[in-house]
Each structure stands twice: as structure tokens, then as C-alpha cells.
Amino acid sequence: MKVVFAADPTPEEPDKFPPGYQYPLAQRGVYSVRSMALMGRLLTVLVVDEQGWPKWYPIQLFEIADPRLPESWLFTRRPENVLTAVWGYPSMATDLQHIVELRRRSESALRTFLAESGVAGYDEAAGRFHDF
């Protein structure tokens, strides 16, 4: 699945970001979706942004460029969790701890993301993923 960042960079939830916040996404930039999650009532997508790390963003910020989902994706429903549903690569969909560790940028989560998500690679010197 591919999306195009097409939103006004002003966030929909101003209380969560400082005044003048700019999303680290290129206007009209095309991003591969590495996972999707329903957080409460908000559908989010995981993309490698311009800072080179995977982050969750509201789907409303994007237009859909290619709606096809990867064949390897799994789906998990977690009604008791903040993430009520997750679609994505196997560890993302089945291991809640992986989601936490990816946010913390742990070495094991980095390796798993690189191995399972389909991202192009990781530049160790720069400390960032690249997704060509």
C-alpha cells in the first residue's frame, strides 16, 4: 500500500503538538505503508518519514496512491488495548511488545522491522531507515 502526504501540515489535534508543528513528511511525498492500526477511533498508518524512522500518522493526512495490501500482512483485533486492531507484518500484528520496542527504537525491534516490514534498508552510520 502506498500513500501520498497531501495534508496541510497543521495537525488535527493541536493539543498533542507544539504551535507551528510540522510533520516530518514531504508534501506530495509517496510513502509505503508498513502497518495500519486502529487507535480508538483513529485509523493510523506506519510509514518511514523524512527523519528515517517508522512513525504512526493519521490516515487523514494522506491520499491513497496504491490500495493493495501486502500478501504477508496479518490482522489482529485487541479490543482491550489502545490499539484496538492492527494490520501489518507478522511481528507488528502478533506481538504487542514489538510495537512498544519499535517506538523505543530498540535494537531487536529495528532488526525485526528491517526483516519483516519490506523496508529497503537501514543506514547504521546515519541511524535511519531508507525506503526507496
Short description:
This protein is of the alpha+beta class.
What's the SSE blueprint?
Layout: E1 2-5, E2 30-32, E3 35-39, E4 42-48, E5 54-58, E6 62-66, E7 74-77, E8 83-88, H1 90-94, H2 96-104, H3 107-116, E9 121-123, E10 128-130
Antiparallel strand pairs: 1-2, 1-6, 3-4, 3-8, 4-5, 7-8, 9-10
Helix pairs in contact: 2-3
**Strand order in the sheet with the most strands:** 5-4-3-8-7
The number of distinct helices, counting runs of at least 4 residues, comes to 3
Tally of structural domains: 1
| Share of residues in helices | 10-25%
What's the number of extended β-strand segments?
10
**Tell me about the biggest sheet?**
5 strands, antiparallel
**Runs with pLDDT <50, length 5+?**
none
Instruction: Give the overall silhouette.
Output: globular
Strand content: 25-35%
Q: How would you spell out the order of helices and strands? A: EEEEEEEEHHHEE
Structural class estimated from helices and strands:
alpha+beta
Spatial separation of the terminal alpha carbons:
14 Å
**Radius of gyration from the CA trace?**
14 Å
Mean pLDDT score: 88
Plain-language structure description:
The chain has 132 residues and is of the alpha+beta class. The protein has one domain. The chain is 18% helix and 34% strand. The chain is built from three helices and ten strands. The chain has helices spanning 90-94, 96-104, 107-116, and strands at residues 2-5, 30-32, 35-39, 42-48, 54-58, 62-66, 74-77, 83-88, 121-123, 128-130. Helix 2 (96-104) crosses helix 3. The protein is globular.
